[in-house]
Amino acid sequence: MRRIGFVLFAFSLIVGAFAGVTAGGYVLGGLAEAHLFQGAHRLVMLLILMLVMVMVIATLLTAAERKWSALMQNRIGPNRAKLFGSPLAGLGHTAADVLKMLTKEDFIPAAANKALFILAPMLAFGSAFALFAVVPAGPSVEVMGHTVDMVVGTPDFGILYLFAIASIAVYGTALAGWSSNNKFGLLGGVRASAQMVSYEIALGLSLVGLMMTFSTVQLPQMVGEGLGQGQFQYVWGNAAAMGEGGGFDIGLPAWGLFLQPVGFLLFFAASFAETKRAPFDVPEGESEIIGYFVEYSGMKFGLFMISEFVEIVVLSGVITVLFLGGYHLPFGELWLRSLPVMQEHGWLLGTVLGTVFWLKVLALIWLQLLIRWSLIRFRYDQLMSLGWKVLLPLGLVNVFVTGALLLWDPTLQWMTGLGLLVLSALFVLSVTGPASDETEETAHGASDHDRDHGDTPSNLGGGAKHTLPDSHHADGDLEAAARAAASLSH
Amino acid sequence: MAYQASRDPSSEIRVRTYLPDLAKGLAVTAKLFFRNLFGTRDPNVEVVDREGLSRVTTVQYPEEKMIQPPGYRGLHRLVPREDGKPRCVACYMCATICPAQCIYIEAGEYETTDPSNESQVIEKYPTRFVIDELRCIVCGLCVEACPKDAIRMDTGVHTPSEYTRADFVYDIPKLLKGPPVSHPSDPWNRRQGSAAPAHQPAEKHARIGDGRAPEGGHLEAGHVPAAALPATSSSPKTPPAQVHHFEK
Question: Is B131 helix (H, G, I), strand (E, B) or coil?
């Protein structure tokens, strides 16, 4: 009970922190708009969203990744670096990491290209960081008489900004590998660049369907600022019949996940590969293969590492905005907006919806960590064939099917129907089938059947004895024994 | 034609589309995550006997320690006698058998004119007994070799860290620890006033010439009677040995 209480308390702290920073962002934005020039709230959003939210979440994520991955692996995780006498859920280790990276010797190889060597981590980190500039983290509300948008920039080209900045991230990797003057680093850099370039195409294609669906490339419009725009509409719902009454609206929201599930999966997979995150982390390898940052030390290396975590947060933000409805509630939002207290205090509505956004981001971050620590790494040829032979054709098919459905039915209902069909087919395939029993057993075998491992040698001996007289080859012995042991242990 | 690196034989739809099995794998990890997040870890050091929702298998050293089996080899110690001196008689058995040659002994002899009469019972003692713990391979052969139960590895700890290599060279003050040990077979445990020691050695056959009359008055089969032997410098009939009593 204490443990559950502690966990819920920690979670409520996180939610409270999100709400507090969002509220502070709105209030400060309103103040800036009122006292400084028009548009000054965007500068406040630059500070609050990118410097405070993204950077702090990325830093805490270094500690959270260790703890959460430990929990997934039946361990505890780091709890020995104590601050003020308490382990503080691994935050002492984060502080120690930062201090270590700042105080380590920062050397440049003798024959390395100095300018590019220093530039590479800047490009990698800067592009990851700058991706968040177009992500709307909350609704546009009236604060102190001025409109405050929770977004840093709303260029006309919206999503194309994401693709452009993601391409600059490739430069960081390639330059890091090349300028190290190290053959292993060069190969690592080339490997990483090839991977990132091949998945950029899948990245772009997967979003074309979404752009066609919502008829816009600008992210705030895709999220939907007014009812009926973007994802702020119900495909089958009672919103139209409700009027201004203030009843509770319920229905299937037009989120990208339901409209374009194939696009969601393609974009998710392609973005994993862009960020070189497991299972696509062949360039990094982490203790198995020399990557492109082999010659880097100290904070330059730290920038590469932190850029990976920043990319996790930014990516979760982008996916939330595109596919999970951004800051919108799945139902009941019209009711919330019609409440008098919300209409009077715009920042309160902004805080509630902004917290919803960050909670969705947190859920996606957790999902990314889960995927990282559950899936084994792809082999390089599997990785490349996945990008070119699977994701690219699927993206094209998605574009054509989406276009056809939109022509037939512009009200998005057929497309949602197909999307729900795809999702339910995947769900049914996942929970049924012969493959489920095997994986269940091997999963439970990890902890329950530890004692069986002690018996396996005797099984192997028994099996080997049976096959010894009639087989001539040593391989045949081993294979037969292995088969016998496998059948015995099952 | 490029070499086909992966020949995927399965045509089952769940395997070809990756996603269903992927989702099941993620479900397993997610289940573990929530179990370990909301469950409290059972601190039982017998990890297989742990109960509870949490599956965490960690043993939090040094607050919790794994149970050491009997005979577990740890740091060496020299075993003291009742009077505080080490039981070691500097016989060099341990130093000889040590595979890492990490024991260095210098022997000293008790003077026969020693007022405590220790030389009546024990002749030698180690003036220097040095073990280089960095060289030790923790094999336990020294413990097995010692005839006097003077060195043991039962401290239950391992070599603690030091700042210099010199601090790892342990001498007698650093090695001598533990309660005093006294066995009935020790030479100073012979009862006062008895001609024979309290503890009879296991071998029934007594060697010729140590002063003890053989059992039954005749030698065992296979041995040539003493009188039939050619005369040697050492007389077969020696006077009975003097048994020295150790006066405490």
Answer: strand
